[in-house]
Amino acid sequence: MEMETKVTVHDAMTSNVITADPGISVAEAASIMTEKKVGSIIVKSNSEPEGLITESDIIRKVVSKDLAASKVTIGEVMSRNLISIEPERELSDAARLMAKNSIRRLPVVKDGALVGILTSSDVMMVAPELTEILVENARIEENRALSPENERSVPGVCEVCGNYEEYLEEYDGRYICEECKEDLEGE
Prior knowledge:
- By secondary structure, this protein is α+β, with helices and mostly antiparallel strands.
- The chain contains 8 helices and 9 strands.
- The protein is about 35% helix and about 20% strand.
- The strands form 4 sheets. A 3-stranded mixed beta sheet has the order 1-2-3. The protein has a two-stranded antiparallel ribbon with strand order 4-5. It has a two-stranded antiparallel ribbon with strand order 6-7.
- The longest helix has 14 residues, at about 130-145.
- It starts with 8 loop residues before the first helix and ends with a helix.
- InterPro entries: ACP_MB, CBS_dom, CBS_dom_sf, CBS_domain-containing.
- Keywords: CBS domain, Iron, Metal-binding, Repeat, Zinc.
């Protein structure tokens, strides 16, 4: 089974990334996400990405605090220290980077400009054999989740119903709770 196929980040990434200016409101960002059916938006004011805002950022930092989504800008609540990767890097490097940092989305940057986004579901679709790296990490995370200082593990916000759940499953490229998964499978 030792076959050396070099699959790059470029092979698996999505190049039409949904981006928005940091000055737009969280309400506007949420409506873009709904319209484009995406769970995150890359925030940038020029070609260089400055941050990322996800559905769970909106729920954790705005909804749970009962702030008015039309009064808060995405620049105020986005995740800033973006970890990114170059398009020519190997996909296995990307999987390891995601695993190490417990993230599911990697902006792809070439010469300072955003050229795409790579999600853990992209990795699984293009190179199923790398799922092990991602899943192995989830197991490590689950064990680590028992210690309170670690917030980032498999628990999270279901991308369908928006409820916070202890355990999310990946289904059709989205992370969803078991209840929504049963509903979708029953359709």
